[in-house]
Design goal:
single chain, two-stranded antiparallel sheet
Length: about 500
C-alpha cells in the first residue's frame, strides 16, 4: 500500500478520529490558559495576506503548474494542480506596512510570471477560471482512480490532507458532489470542483484580546458592503453551460458565483461549515466553537514530537483548516518568548481572517481591498460605530445579496447617526470614510491611503465591479450572435490581457 493511501486510511479510521478529538480538547485548554494569562496579547496591529491564483497557457486554457513555480518563484501549493498561492509575510501595521505588503506581493507575482513565462504559462489573478483545459472541464474535474479503497483525484495536489478531505466528504455525500447554479445542474466525483475558485484573504492581528470580539462582530457586518465592491466570479467554465439559455444565465447568475460553488462543494453531508459565523462575546467563544465544529479528515501529529512541533497546538490548528466560516478567527502561534527575552511576541496572537473576497485583477486592486477591509474594521471599532447594533440576520442577508447582485445589491447598514439604511450610496460613503479613519489611526500616510483606496472607490462611483464588467462583455457578445461559451471565453481572454496591461481595474472603467 502506498504512503498516500495509508495516511488517508489512517485519517478516516474511527480510532484516529477519537484520538484527534481528545487532543483537540486538550490543546484547546492549553490555548485558553495562554489566552487567560495574557500570552496572546501584542503591542501592535499586524496585517498579512493570502492570494490564490491559477495558471493558464498562452490561449488562456487551464494548465498544471510546473514544479519550478514552487521551487524558483516561492509560490505555495493549493488544492488543484493548476493552483498557486502568494502569501505575504505579516507586517506591523504602521505607516509603511502597506507599502511593504504591496512590494512583497508584486515581487512574488512578477517572479512567478517570469518563471512560468519560460514554460509558455502565466498566473491569472481572478476569482474563477472559465476557459477549460484541453480535455474539457468535466473530464479534468472527474478524472480519478481508486487505490486500496481510497479515491485519488488525478488533478488534485498529491497531499494526504486534501485526499482525506475529498474521501471524507465523498463518503458523507454518497459518492458525488452536486452543483446547482443558473445554467448548470451537475454532479462531480470529487471536491476538486472547489478548485474552480480563487480568493484573497486579508488577515488583521488585533493586539488586545478583550477588543477582539468587537472587531470580529464588525467584520461580519461589513461582509456585504465590501463584497459588493469586490465581486469577480459570475461564470463557471464555459463548456459546462452546454445549450443553457444565455439570457437566463445572464439574468440569474450571481455576481460572486465563487460563494455558492464553495458552499455547495463543502456543505454536503455535514452541518453548515461554510457560512456566515455568529457573533462572539469573547476569544473563549471562538475557541469553543472551533472545538465543537464537526471534525473532517483528522490527522495526528507525532505525540513524541509534540513539544518540538512548530505549531504548539497541531491538532487544533489542523481542525481550524476545515473551519470554513466567511470570517474566521485564527488563534495561537508559536510559544511566546520567555520573560526577559523581549516580552510580547506577535507570533502568539489572535487575528481575523477575512475570507469572502475573490482574487482581484491586479496587485494594486488586491492591496486596495486589503487596505479597505482592515482600515474599515479599525475605523468602525475606534469610533464605537453603531453598526454593531445591526442584527446578525440582516448582516447575513446583506452578504448573500452582495453575492447575488454585486454592485447593485441591497445592503443593510446603520449609519454613524444610528439610522437604518439600504441605500448603497450612503453605505459606501461610510465604508470609505471609516476606512480612511482607520488607516489614519494605523499611521498610514494620506497619499498612501489614496493610492490604494482610490481605485476601489472608482468602482463605487461607476457602480461597476470586475463581475459586472465580465457580465457586460458576455451579454454584448451574445447579443451580437456569439454562443454563451464563445462569449465567456472571449471575455476571459480580454480580462487576462487587461489584468496584465493595467495597474488597476479602475483603468477599465
Amino acid at each position: 500500500m502506498d504512503e498516500l493511501v495509508e495516511r488517508v486510511r489512517d485519517s478516516l479510521s474511527p480510532a484516529t478520529r477519537a484520538e484527534f478529538e481528545r487532543r483537540v480538547e486538550r490543546q484547546a485548554e492549553r490555548l485558553l490558559e495562554d489566552y487567560r494569562s495574557g500570552l496572546l496579547e501584542n503591542a501592535t496591529f499586524a496585517v498579512g495576506l493570502e492570494l490564490e491564483s491559477y495558471v493558464v497557457d498562452d490561449g488562456g486554457r487551464l494548465r498544471r503548474v510546473p514544479a519550478s513555480a514552487f521551487d524558483e518563484a516561492g509560490c505555495e501549493k493549493e488544492l488543484g494542480v493548476h493552483n498557486v498561492e502568494f502569501n505575504t509575510t505579516p507586517d506591523v501595521l504602521d505607516g509603511s506596512g502597506f507599502d511593504r505588503q504591496a512590494n512583497r506581493l508584486r515581487t512574488r507575482v512578477e517572479r512567478a510570471r517570469e518563471v512560468l513565462g519560460g514554460a509558455g504559462l502565466r498566473p491569472v489573478l481572478d476569482g474563477m477560471w472559465t476557459i477549460p483545459p484541453p480535455e474539457g472541464t468535466e473530464a479534468y474535474l472527474g478524472e480519478r482512480a481508486e487505490r486500496g479503497g481510497v479515491v485519488v483525484a488525478a488533478n488534485m495536489r498529491s497531499d494526504p490532507r486534501y485526499c482525506a478531505l475529498d474521501n471524507d466528504t465523498l463518503r458523507r455525500a454518497g459518492g458525488e458532489i452536486p452543483l446547482s447554479v443558473p445554467g448548470v445542474e451537475r454532479t462531480f466525483p470529487s471536491i476538486l470542483v472547489e478548485s474552480l475558485t480563487a480568493s484573497m484573504q486579508p488577515h488583521l492581528q488585533v493586539p488586545s484580546t478583550a477588543a477582539f470580539p468587537r472587531y470580529f462582530n464588525c467584520a461580519v457586518r461589513t461582509l456585504g458592503p465590501v463584497l459588493a465592491l469586490a465581486a469577480n466570479s459570475p461564470f463557471l467554465p464555459a463548456d459546462l453551460y452546454g445549450d443553457a439559455d444565455p439570457d437566463r444565465v445572464l439574468d440569474a447568475t450571481p455576481h460572486e458565483l465563487r460563494v455558492p460553488v464553495f458552499e455547495q462543494s463543502i456543505n454536503v453531508g455535514v452541518r453548515r461549515k461554510v457560512c456566515v459565523p455568529r457573533d462572539i462575546d469573547s476569544v473563549e467563544d471562538a475557541v469553543r466553537r472551533l472545538v465543537d465544529d464537526e471534525t473532517v479528515a483528522p490527522f495526528l501529529s507525532d505525540p513524541d514530537e509534540e513539544s518540538a512541533y512548530p505549531e504548539p497546538y497541531p491538532e487544533l490548528e489542523h481542525k481550524r483548516g476545515t473551519y470554513w466560516r466567511w470570517v474566521r478567527t485564527v488563534i495561537g502561534g508559536r510559544t511566546p518568548a520567555p520573560p526577559g527575552a523581549g516580552g510580547r511576541n506577535d507570533e502568539a496572537s489572535v487575528r481575523i481572517e477575512y475570507r469572502p473576497l475573490p482574487a482581484q485583477p491586479t496587485v494594486r486592486d488586491t492591496v486596495g481591498l486589503q487596505a479597505l477591509t482592515v482600515g474599515l474594521l479599525r475605523g468602525l471599532v475606534e469610533a464605537d460605530h453603531p453598526i454593531k447594533s445591526l442584527a446578525w440576520a440582516d448582516a447575513e442577508e446583506s452578504f448573500y445579496n452582495a453575492v447575488d447582485d454585486g454592485p447593485d445589491a441591497e445592503l443593510a447598514w446603520v449609519t454613524a447617526e444610528g439610522d437604518r439604511t439600504h441605500d448603497p450610496a450612503v453605505v459606501h460613503d461610510e465604508v470609505f470614510r471609516f476606512a480612511r479613519r482607520g488607516l489614519t489611526a494605523f499611521g498610514v500616510a494620506g497619499g498612501t491611503i489614496e493610492e490604494y483606496l482610490a481605485p476601489i472607490e472608482a468602482r463605487r462611483d461607476a457602480r461597476t465591479t470586475p463581475s459586472a464588467w465580465k457580465r457586460a462583455r458576455v451579454r454584448e457578445a451574445v447579443e451580437g450572435g456569439a454562443s454563451l461559451p464563445e462569449a465567456i471565453t472571449d471575455a476571459q481572454r480580454e480580462y487576462v490581457r487587461r489584468s496584465e496591461a493595467t495597474a488597476s481595474f479602475a483603468e477599465w472603467l
